[in-house]
Amino acid sequence: MAIQTGAETEPRTPLSRERVLRAAVDLADRGGVEALSMRKLGQELGVDAMALYRHVRGKDDLLDGVAEVIVGEIERPAAGDDWKATLRELAVAARRVMLRHPWARQVLEERGTSGPAALAHIEAVLGTLQAGGFTIEVAHHALHVLDSRVFGFNQALFEESGPADPSPEAAAAMVRALAGYPRISELAQSVSHEGILGRCDDDVEFAFGLDLILDGLDRLRGAPNNF
Amino acid sequence: MAIQTGAETEPRTPLSRERVLRAAVDLADRGGVEALSMRKLGQELGVDAMALYRHVRGKDDLLDGVAEVIVGEIERPAAGDDWKATLRELAVAARRVMLRHPWARQVLEERGTSGPAALAHIEAVLGTLQAGGFTIEVAHHALHVLDSRVFGFNQALFEESGPADPSPEAAAAMVRALAGYPRISELAQSVSHEGILGRCDDDVEFAFGLDLILDGLDRLRGAPNNF
DNA sequence: CGCTGGCGTCTACGGTGTAGACTACGCCGT
DNA sequence: ACGGCGTAGTCTACACCGTAGACGCCAGCG
If you measure CA to CA, which chain B residue comes closest to A145? Predict the structure, then answer.
């Protein structure tokens, strides 16, 4: 009875950003993203809504954190020597997460999610592609079309494609943020050189995936039963 | 000066559902979907927010109507004899609409859109596939993967996959709603017979598209420059 | 002892969707 | 002509949302 302000039974473990984010994911899991309000989340944690603002800059920041948690749940398979099997496992693992949190797609889409978890995921995809012998250009397209298939939106997880003319300090910050992600760095450099790819044209990415699908269907037309 | 209630300069053309929906699309085009509120929409039309409720059951109904308008904007190419080119044109036309209304993807995803415009679009896709010689099973998969590529979400436009055991009258209503859409009817029948496809398993659809992509990438690995 | 800084609370403001009562007006049968 | 009626738009009110700003409480420290 040393610490005790009143009839409190438990000293109420203090909030933390992580606790807030975990409770937010839990709340969204039960009631969908529209049930995730600051007030309900505070109630869930036995706390006033405004208390959350000590640990989270606001609802936007909360959603950013939640997105990072979700992407962090994607388990990465051990890098095997079969690139196709590895990519498939990666995609299926990501899909498992999206099925577990059906509301997450929307959150991931409307907030960019360029946190370390997203970068690590992209790095894994690019690494697998590179180990499989793909050129950087094809790997870039493949990253887009795979992420689009898995997450359901076309603008990839990272790659908000900042201003057209990056200032030197912005470019330096970019390089610093990408330390530890060699494939992404290489890709970013290759894209910003813009010799080969022309700044990641959305139309080109769309057509790439579309033609992949149409050509695949074409091959299935003759042999309909072996897929 | 026959009709004139006061200092009115114009007799204020009366609202209508169509006028409300068009204004809603316009408002969302300018400010995104979060700018589309009943109050702002009323203001846009020079009218109290509650007036909209005479023409629209509520915000849900408004969004349903907006979704229908958007899908209706997709132009259908003349049915040529090249199924692949026709499908490509269809996909590109749909994408044009989605680029014109960047907020529409979200609306289409969260509301099902099983209106006549969506049905007509699906019918066109299925018709093209059937004319191209696809079996109904492959056409079904193809519909899923194409719509997923175009609209960005995996659950297709139509096909909310109602209750597992449709009551007779519900099934009859379904048949009646699908009159005029022979390919969709055929597909629905084939699916509900559930001999071949097993009730449109989401996992199967996902794997279908994923393998299409992976196999396509595999072929691109050797010849990287001709896409 | 007083101060300070972190953490949680309280109040308040402007925004949202919408239920329900109310008003203004054209039409129609008598 | 007139009373009723349906239709269209308005007004008020309620519950909910995100969050700015002031306040209370308490541990730690000088």
Answer: B213
